[in-house]
Specification:
By secondary structure, this protein is mainly α. Helix content is 79%, strand content 0%. It folds into 2 domains: 2-71, no CATH class; 74-417, Na+/H+ antiporter like fold. The chain is built from 19 helices and no strands.
Length: 422
Amino acid sequence: MWQILDKILFLFQNILLSVSQHILFAIGILLISGYLLGKLAEKLKLPVITGYIVAGILLGESIGSVIELEMVKSLRPITEVALGLIALAIGGEFSRAKLKIIGKEVLIIAILQILITFVLVSLVMILLGFNFEFSLLLAAIATATAPAATVAVVQNLRARGKFIDYLYGLVALDDAGSVILFAVIFAFIGTMIAKVNGSSIAGGILIANALWEIILSLLVGVLGGYILHKATRKRQNKSEIMIISLGIVFLTIGIAHPLHISPLLTNIMIGATLVNLSPKNQRISRILGTLTPPIYAAFFTIAGTELQLGIFAKPEILFFGIAFVIVRMIGKYSGVYLGAISCKSDSNVKNYLGICMFPQAGIAIGLVLMIQASPILANASSQIQNLATNMINIIIFSVFVNELIGPPLTKWAIIKGADLIE
């Protein structure tokens, strides 16, 4: 009897080991785990994406993973697709009609909150004793917001109206502005933090390259949007429109990598081009919206696997990380608040819009990866590399905290700001 049970158990373990190495098993685990904890989050009055992120943390290497880490890395295309669709949705909010109404106000609010966040974080980190150069980099990354979390909460609440128009516009301008600011700051301090092959990297060259990549991202986005408009304008079949639209998004993301341009900016520009060529193109976002629930579930669960609980054991990271999170929130909120006052915006915009800027994830992690891959750090001293590692851990800590508390705060602020009845 016991021998039979032992053989059955051995067979079950072999089957589990075999299927756990299959990529579809990994995706299934991500989706089911995300769904279950997402439903639990809803019962606790939290956004579903908070449940997705917690599911990822539980599946991740920090606690003991069912899915191999290398397999999780192979699922990165899912995150790229999710960010591409999110960027497309944000860009679709930039119609000429909306820009005429909110364009100037949102631009002023975006500039003020970026500058105030950058200055506050820089000053506080320097005063607390963090390295000057890396404090500037931390401050530049602090200006970035997580569009994925914002869009997911808005779509889950099915919110509409002026407050949401302001929110989408601010998120898009904030992300574009943070990428530009980071590129300029990184280029500016590049000559100060390291040397490559014994010679200093010219800051002017780095700035020129960064600006060229931004311009090229926008040009590719305009071209992609025009092609998608031409390919779908006379079609009525939703399946055909979905296939063509996904094809263009995938092609754009694929092209972005060898050209070293931003897939986020490119897809934002595709969405903006589409909506300004014809209001009829708004149907593309609605059609693609039917695909977003499983993609968002997989995206945020994968994001959760990246968050390592081990960083909480480092007192230095905890000290600077907590300070970074608090000051970033103060900068975001006060920047939006002061911008709204200067534009004489509605009280809802003034009081609640800044809270929606707290989430931080994809772009911040993307900028960190850009630093890690840069030749500036390749031959830098061990001291510089240790500082870079500390800075990266502070960002990971911030992402961990902001992705857990940011979405619930964003949900509350949207309900209040958009006058929704929960």
